[in-house]
Design goal:
Bound molecules: S-adenosylmethionine
CATH architecture: 3-Layer(aba) Sandwich
Number of helices: 11
Low-confidence stretches: 222-229
Structural class: alpha/beta
Number of domains: 1
Radius of gyration: 19 Å
Order of helices and strands: HHEHEHHHHHEHEHEHEE
Shape: globular
CATH superfamily: Vaccinia Virus protein VP39
Strand order of the largest sheet: 3-2-1-4-5-7-6
Amino acid sequence: MRHSNSGYQATLFKMPASEYVVNVASVPQRSPFRYPGGKTWLVPRVRQWLTSLDDRPTVLIEPFAGGGIVGLTAAFEELAEHVVLVELDKQVAAVWQTLLKGDADWLAERILSFDLTYDNVRSTLAQDDGGVRERAFRAILKNRTFHGGIMAPGANLIKYGENGKGLKSRWYAETLANRIIAIGKIRNRFTFICGDGIEVMREYARRKQAVFFIDPPYTAGGTKGKRAGTRLYAHHELDHERLFETAAKVAGDVLLTYDDTPDVRDLAARHSFEVECVAMKNTHHAKMMELLIGRSLSWLK
Ligand SMILES: C[S@@+](CC[C@H](N)C(=O)[O-])C[C@H]1O[C@@H](n2cnc3c(N)ncnc32)[C@H](O)[C@@H]1O
C-alpha cells in the first residue's frame, strides 16, 4: 500500500521530466548551508520518488550529505522514519555533529551574537581550536562569506557580494539561527556519520526498507567540474565504479544524481540502471540538465 504524503505528485509533473523546471523558491530552504551543487531544486522529485514507494522507508541514507537538503526534507516531512547523513569533510561534519548532538541552540546564539566585519571574519577563520562547536561555527561562517559557498582549499572571501553588500550579502543571522533551532528540535530523527559514504551504504545493504539518495562529488567534466581553478569540495575524488557496484547490490531502492556525461551513462548502463534527464536551473537561472539514475524511474513519468 502506498504510504501517506503522496499528494505531492498529483498535479506538479504533467510535463516531461526534461521540460519541467522546478521553481526553487517553492521548496522550503531548511539547510544551514548554501551548498555548492546543493539539490534544493531536486526536492520535488525526491518527494515524488519517496512517496511512490510501496512503504514509507524505515531509513533514508544520504551517503554524500553536504548541505543535506534531501535528508532534512525527508525528516521534516516524515517521508522516512529515520535519516542517516554521511559526510567525509570535517568542517561540514562539525556542523551536523553540533546540530544533532544537542548544541543547535548554542550554534544559533553564536551566529546571532557575531559581529560580522572583515576583521572579525578573518581572525575567527584563522583560529584552529575550540573543539567541534567552534569548528561548526567557522564552517558556517566560511560557507556564508566565501564565493559560491565553497569551503575547499583555494576558495576566497567575498569582496563585494550581492548588490555591493559585501560580506553581509549572504549572512542572514536570524534566518540561519531559526533553521538551526528547527533542526535541533527534531534531531532524534537523524543519525550523522563522519565517514565514507560507500562504507555506510554497505552497512545498510541488506535492509529492504533502507533507501539511498546518492549525490556524489563528480568532477570529470560537466557542470560540477566547470568552476575554473577552484574545487568545489575538499573531498572530490571518488571511485565511481565502486559506488555503482555498491548501489546495484543494495536491497533497498536507490536514486543517484549526476552530471549528464557519456561516462556516467556508460556506468549506469553497465550496472543495469535506468537514466532520465531532468531540468534544473543553475544559480544564474539558466536551464540545465541533470541525470537521474535508478533501478526503475517509472515514477518520474
Ligand atoms: C555533490 S555534494 C552533495 C550536495 C548535497 N546533495 C546537497 O544538496 O547539499 C557531495 C558531497 O560529498 C562529500 N564527499 C566526498 N567524498 C565523500 C565520501 N567518500 N563519503 C562521504 N562524503 C563524501 C563532499 O564533501 C560533498 O559534501
